[in-house]
Amino acid sequence: xxxxxxxxxxxxxxxxxxxxxxxxxxxxxxxxxxxxxxxxxxxxxxxxxxxxxxxxxxxxxxxxxxxxxxxxxxxxxxxxxxxxxxxxxxxxxxxxxxxxxxxxxxxxxxxxxxxxxxxxxxxxxxxxxxxxxxxxxxxxxxxxxxxxxxxxxxxxxxxxxxxxxxxxxxxxxxxxxxxxxxxxxxxxxxxxxxxxxxx
Amino acid sequence: xxxxxxxxxxxxxxxxxxxxxxxxxxxxxxxxxxxxxxxxxxxxxxxxxxxxxxxxxxxxxxxxxxxxxxxxxxxxxxxxxxxxxxxxxxxxxxxxxxxxxxxxxxxxxxxxxxxxxxxxxxxxxxxxxxxxxxxxxxxxxxxxxxxxxxxxxxxxxxxxxxxxxxxxxxxxxxxxxxxxxxxx
Lengths: 199, 184
Hints:
The structure holds two protein chains of two kinds.
Chain A: H1 10-30, H2 36-49, E1 53-56, E2 59-62, H3 66-73, H4 77-92, H5 100-118, H6 126-151, H7 159-191
Antiparallel strand pairs in A: 1-2
Helix pairs in contact in A: 1-4, 1-5, 2-4, 3-4, 3-5, 3-6, 3-7, 4-5, 5-6, 6-7
Chain B: H1 2-13, E1 23-29, E2 32-39, E3 43-44, E4 49-54, E5 60-65, E6 71-75, E7 80-89, E8 92-100, H2 102-117, H3 126-151, H4 158-183
Antiparallel strand pairs in B: 1-2, 2-3, 2-6, 4-5, 4-7, 7-8
Helix pairs in contact in B: 2-3
């Protein structure tokens, strides 16, 4: 899901960087004292998740956990993902500094959207909670794939072709991500329901 | 919180492999530039465009497409620094800075012809002997060159991973500190 350095055009990079900057600031303001550690730990989970490969079919995929972060952290997921992506760029050379903004938008945008959409359903009983959490994990990856294809329009690649390839490649991970989000949210809801209340 | 920490520990314990990064490396073998590229988990990058450009001027020196094993063989361009970049679509791109070693590429191919002309009892003078040895050495050294190039593609280590987690927790501490100062 990381776009490499030297692919995108300058306007796309600037656009991504400014959106990511605003999102990160809003996110930072929204985190209250009690939740700082939760944000940091989920951010660490995101940072590490990209390293763990699950071979599926011809290729291999890795978890992103963006949907889970959206559900658990709300706006707080933006700075969490931003910090993790920055460190991935530094330590693992995933993406890069100039594309950091765009990569943040690609991963944090859908996470935030899904998190906010799913939130009202969290208090409405076990079944609705599970379906909502699954959808958050599933849809956030799909939207990220679409956003990535959108960002790649600025190169000579055709949008629908790229979108199809990226969506198809991420289909298994959408399901896995949905399931992981569902199980984690259900577990947290049972064990420590107050963790899901953050804004 | 305990659950989250446990979750994190489990993830760290799993075998790390590179994700979504296209690694590229190049080395010289018998006067040819060998380029290899692979994704995370050593999956070869197939059918990707390889372009060699001169560093600085950006002049296009050679181009090719990787095969099923993620390899491409290009004519070794003249001496100097060059950028070998591989693009695989869907936002994947990797590059490798290569400095060509000009002498061997120029001279070695001409020797074979000379030796064949003279038949089995060929007389070899010192300069030809030097070339012959250079050629053999080149063959023998190719795997070592490859291994050296492969080793210098950076792989994330456990230190990197733990360091990153440490940074994130440290950042959280910083945010918490700034918050309390604001309040106080």
